[in-house]
Write a structure and sequence with these properties.
This protein has 137 residues and is of the alpha+beta class. 20% of the residues lie in helices and 48% in strands. The chain has 2 helices and 8 strands. Strand 3 and strand 4 form a beta hairpin.
């Protein structure tokens, strides 16, 4: 299992952990879990991500790491219930992470969706580490 940690700046005390299971074949989707923690809430969901989505995210991450501006996103397909967005928030190179976890359930005959959305600032120096971690999957 490969683990990617995305911590917030120290003052926010938020964290996201992506855990990817080893793939045996290139054509198989990535399986894993995403865990998110804030001082008040936490959530966890199982995910399946197509390799093409991951490759596109890595290419976009290379660009924002180099230019220190822009946005890259991973996820949102309705089936996965997961979205990760890393974006610049100002002209001096500060970045934030936005994570969405959705879990659809049918309880007592009613459909419901549990949703957790969190946003937090990350250290700009973390981009190069994330790029290396995602590239090494």
């Amino acid at each position: 299992m490969k683990i990617i940690n995305i911590p917030s700046v120290k003052s926010e005390r938020c964290n996201a952990i992506l855990k990817f299971h080893e793939k045996k074949y290139e054509v198989v989707a990535w399986e894993g879990e995403v865990e998110c923690y804030t001082p008040a809430l936490s959530g966890k969901i199982r995910i399946n991500l197509e390799s093409d989505y991951l490759k596109s995210f890595i290419n976009d991450l290379k660009i924002i790491e180099r230019d220190r501006k822009g946005e890259c996103s991973l996820g949102y397909q309705r089936e996965s219930g997961f979205s990760l967005i890393i974006r610049s928030i100002d002209s001096v190179g500060h970045f934030e992470v936005n994570i969405l976890l959705e879990d659809s359930r049918n309880s007592r005959g009613f459909d419901s969706i549990d949703t957790l959305k969190i946003s937090y600032e990350i250290e700009p120096s973390l981009l190069s580490t994330l790029l290396k971690d995602f590239t090494n999957l």
